[in-house]
Amino acid sequence: MNVVREDGWNMRDAVIVEAVRSPVGKRNGGLSGVHPAQLSAEVLNALVARAGVDPAVVEDVVWGCVSQVGEQTFDIARTAALTAGWPESVTGVTVDRQCGSSQQSVHFAAAGLVAGQYDVVVAGGVESMSRVPMGSAIGEATPFPPGFMERYGSFPNQGLGAEMIAEKWGFTREQLDEFSVESHAKAAAAREAGRFDDQITPITLPDGTVVGQDEGIRASSVDKLAGLKTAFKPDGVITAGNSSQISDGSAALLMTTSEKARELGLTPLARVHTAVLAGTDPVIMLTAPIPATAKALTKSGLSIDDIGAFEVNEAFAPVPLAWLAEAGADPKRLNPNGGAIALGHPLGGSGARLMTTLVHHMRDNGIRYGLQTMCEGGGQGNATILELL
């Protein structure tokens, strides 16, 4: 239902009526031959097909993408909608809030719905890191002018930020590797149990090959990971094994209001209950999920124990571990189906991927409240609380 204020005025809300994602492909894997706009189009068409709606009712596609260069430039949101064969009346806008780009797309879509600017909107995102490598948009330039460098004294590096978190919170290499092994184990168990089946749309390649499952999940052990070299500091603790995987993928959510959902005969899955942002030191970079979570809980009036599931992006193992140490959440509720260390992290598509996974997990397990948060370049973090309907 729409929210009703104490004075009786009926406020608009923002609800998710469908959520779908592609499998997450590993670098140079099954999805690497697919143009990112085409991959987006496949997900967009699966979204409206599952919802049973005419794409003509969609007013805008708000699409996250980080490396907006080459195949991912020229407003890939609009290109994706047109590639999908949707009416030319459906507009598109591309969002960059680094790793949280498509979670921010959900925030923008929800705000537009509540404000009355939209009645039906799609939020999501894409990244093909095989075809458009991370950092491609920088080229020979520097994004940080003298004023920034004078203030912070160094060029921010996310890997070194992860090392700083591990040092600050006292995490050992073994602790990080144990967390990573568990991420793979949870993801493997979810895949074997079919928990991803309803959220994934298989992608058929031009040669007829079907990519239907996440490609990054693998059996691992602390002993295997212990043999990997550190990636950023010779005496550090961050390796490829306890970091998120470079990936290709896309995800999308169909959003509307409760009133419009009834008009269209749609059943909402969840309501966007609370959406906030937080900013922290851009050099350590990856700690903003901690204040973002605290801010979301304060704003919502909920406690950490009211939340039945948490999706905290596993950019690097120290990120969710530091979040867990500060938030005081039940570890069993954190990333219950694995995270980006096992599934992969297709930058601009990850926020929508996490939210798709969260919505389906909440629905399948009758969980009333779920919270998602991600670390982002520039020392930022989104946090979103969903309420099951």
Automatic annotation (TrEMBL):
<protein>
    <submittedName>
        <fullName>Acetyl-CoA acyltransferase</fullName>
    </submittedName>
</protein>
<dbReference type="GO" id="GO:0003988">
    <property type="term" value="F:acetyl-CoA C-acyltransferase activity"/>
</dbReference>
<dbReference type="Pfam" id="PF02803">
    <property type="entry name" value="Thiolase_C"/>
</dbReference>
<dbReference type="Pfam" id="PF00108">
    <property type="entry name" value="Thiolase_N"/>
</dbReference>
<dbReference type="InterPro" id="IPR002155">
    <property type="entry name" value="Thiolase"/>
</dbReference>
<dbReference type="InterPro" id="IPR020617">
    <property type="entry name" value="Thiolase_C"/>
</dbReference>
<keyword id="KW-0012">Acyltransferase</keyword>
<feature type="active site" description="Proton acceptor">
    <location>
        <position position="375"/>
    </location>
</feature>
<dbReference type="InterPro" id="IPR016039">
    <property type="entry name" value="Thiolase-like"/>
</dbReference>
<comment type="similarity">
    <text>Belongs to the thiolase-like superfamily. Thiolase family.</text>
</comment>
<feature type="active site" description="Acyl-thioester intermediate">
    <location>
        <position position="99"/>
    </location>
</feature>
<dbReference type="InterPro" id="IPR020616">
    <property type="entry name" value="Thiolase_N"/>
</dbReference>
<dbReference type="InterPro" id="IPR020613">
    <property type="entry name" value="Thiolase_CS"/>
</dbReference>
<feature type="domain" description="Thiolase C-terminal">
    <location>
        <begin position="266"/>
        <end position="387"/>
    </location>
</feature>
<feature type="domain" description="Thiolase N-terminal">
    <location>
        <begin position="15"/>
        <end position="257"/>
    </location>
</feature>
<feature type="active site" description="Proton acceptor">
    <location>
        <position position="345"/>
    </location>
</feature>
<keyword id="KW-0808">Transferase</keyword>
